[in-house]
Amino acid sequence: MACISEHHLNEYTMVGVWKIEEDLETLLSMVELSPEEKKKFKTFKSNSRRLEYVSVRALLAELMGPDAKIVYNKNKKPFIKDGSHFISISHSNKLTAIMLSSRERIGIDLEYMSSNITGIARRFINRRENITRKKDYRRYHLYIHWCAKEALYKICDKEGINMKKNITIFPFPVDVSGYMRGRVKSDMIDEEFDLQYTRYDNYAIVWTKKYYDDRESEKAKMLGPSS
Length: 227
Description:
This protein has two domains: 3-102, CATH 3.90.470.20; 108-211, CATH 3.90.470.20. 29% of the residues lie in helices and 32% in strands. The protein has six helices and eleven strands. Strands 7-11-10-9-8 form a five-stranded antiparallel sheet, covered by helices on one side.
């Protein structure tokens, strides 16, 4: 099906979403994997994991062109190989999402909403957070919180962040789409972020971005990545 959504948030930052409807052979025909990517691809045992991996590269090629490649630094954080963009990646079930920015720190997460999140909510919801009691929205509200915390974890790129203890999503009225605010507070960071959320079919999607004043300092972290 290729890219089902390409949303430019501003002049620097965009989000792309891919719905995986192709078989693996078709997806592979859409990309040209580098030797390093081929090596990584062969390590995946399941077909679903291989589909996810190739769909990310296919979506990136559609958004940035076939020469764009993903590499990882020593902390396994992804970057575009030429250093031109930050990238955040998420996939669940049949959806793949990429967030790209040339100037902003970014984080994105999407999740297919199964029915078991209520049973594990205590693992990531803290006492400062409010979850709606409305039955029709409760599961979605929980998934928004989970995705928001994943997105904040990615944008901070800090080790030792606990989803329940160190990340708080401030109360917000849940709707199909909307905005919220979150705080990450640990020994290493104390920072607030704006987040945006939306629903697509049975998926919750949340992203966050924040302008990075010292772009060159952050870019230096990309040097010497391992793929």
